[in-house]
Amino acid sequence: MRQDKMKYFSWFVAILMVAALLSGCAKSSNEPLEESPTTTSSDSAEGSEGKLDTSKKVELVWYLLGDANKDQKEVMAELNKMLEKDLNTTVKLNFTTWTDWQTKYNLLLASGEKIDMIFASTWSDYYKFANQGAFLPLGDLLPTYAPETWKNVPKQDWDEATVKGNILAVPATYPEYTPDGLVYREDWRNELGLPEIKDLDSIEAYLDGVKKAKNVTPINGKAYNEVFTLFKAYNDYQQIGGDSGVIAASSYDNPRDIIAYPFTPEFEAWVKRMKTWADKGFWNSDTLSSQVEAGDAIKVGTGAVYWRNAPGAGGYIVDMEKNNPEIKLGYFPFTRFHNYVMPNLSVNNAMAIPKNAANPERSLMVLDKLRNDPKYYDLLSYGIEGKHYSIAEDGKYIVTPPANLKDTKNFVPYGIASWGFRLESMERVKQASGWSGFDALLQEFKSESKPNIFAPVLLDYAPVKSQQAAVNAVIQQYGLPLMMGLVPDVDKAIETYRKQLEAAGVNDVLAYVKEQAYAYYDEKGMK
Amino acid sequence: MGSFFRELNRNKAMFLMIAPVLLFFIVFSYFPMVGVYYAFTRFSFDGGLFGSEFIGMKNFEFLFKSGALWNLTKNTVLYNLAFILIGNALQLVCAILLSELPGKWFRKTTQSVMFLPFFVSFVLVGAFVFNLFNSNNGVVNTVLAQLGLPEYDFYLHTEPWKYIITFFAVWKGLGYGTVIYLAAIMGISDEYHEAAKIDGANIFQRVRYIIVPMLVPTFILLILLSLGGILKGQFDLFYQIVGNNGMLFEATDIIDTYVYRSLAVNFDIGMGTAAGLYQSLFGFVLVLTVNYIIKKVREDYALF
Question: Which of A288, B180, B237, B275 is 20 to 30 Å from the Cα of A179, by its Cα?
Answer without folding.
Answer: A288
